[in-house]
Amino acid sequence: MTISVAITSDFICPWCLIGERRLSKAIESLPDGTDVELKWLPFELNADMRPEGMDRKTYRSLKFGSWERSRLLDAHTVEAAKGDGVEFDYLAIERTPNTLSAHRLMQLAQEQGSATSMANRIFSAYFEHGRDIGNADVLADIAAENGMDRAQAAAFLAGGGGAEAVRDLELSVQNRGVRSVPSFDIDGEIVSGAQPVEIFEAALRRAAERGSACTAGACTVG
What is the pTM of this model? Predict the structure, then answer.
């Protein structure tokens, strides 16, 4: 049995990272013989961000009214993520990046069957190591760390590869009513936000039950 899960997220969203880690824990609780197929969908929280990004302190101070407010919000995510295996290092992050290129790279990873590991590496690079994931050279390095050919990834990014696919996917996500991330479509059931592991477990169980019913010939059409 295979459960399909579509994850809509952005790489500068700490709750997206937390939610993905909690979903992963929930998946580990599934019984043997149940597979989960993950699909990653792009969402840009700052679609108008300049290509080179912006100094994080300046950006966050403008966005939230003060640097002190930004630091309080950062501390909240650190506290919320205790036990989720996330080691936020906000002091290491110098820039708020434009994430279009990171989402483009995900298209190449999706084609090569390594999207989930790539997403984890990009999230970790930004939030746990302070790397500039808006920089093409940094992204090419991350691609190589994920087992890709670095030269191929660099050429893909330099040539604008994946941009049209990202825009089309973003439009389809918006048309389905997604206005915030993370959003998880678990076999047709939407789970919004970085919910507790138990919420994801319950949604996965319901998806498995629906799959069992279909296997038994109990599915309806339409």
Answer: 0.92
Could you tell me where the DSSP H helices lie in the chain?
14-28, 56-64, 67-80, 100-111, 115-127, 136-145, 150-158, 163-175, 197-215
Strand order in the sheet with 2-9: 35-42, 2-9, 183-186, 189-192
CA dihedral 186, 44, 126, 136 (to 10 degrees): 120
> Residue 71: which residues within 8 A CB-CB, separation 6 or more?
90
Tokens of 60: 């966050």
Span 13-35, pLDDT tens digits: 999 999 999 999 999 999 888 99
Closest CA to 187 of 82, 35, 22: 35
User: Who's near 41: CB < 8 A, 6+ residues apart?
Assistant: 6, 7, 8, 9, 169, 172, 173
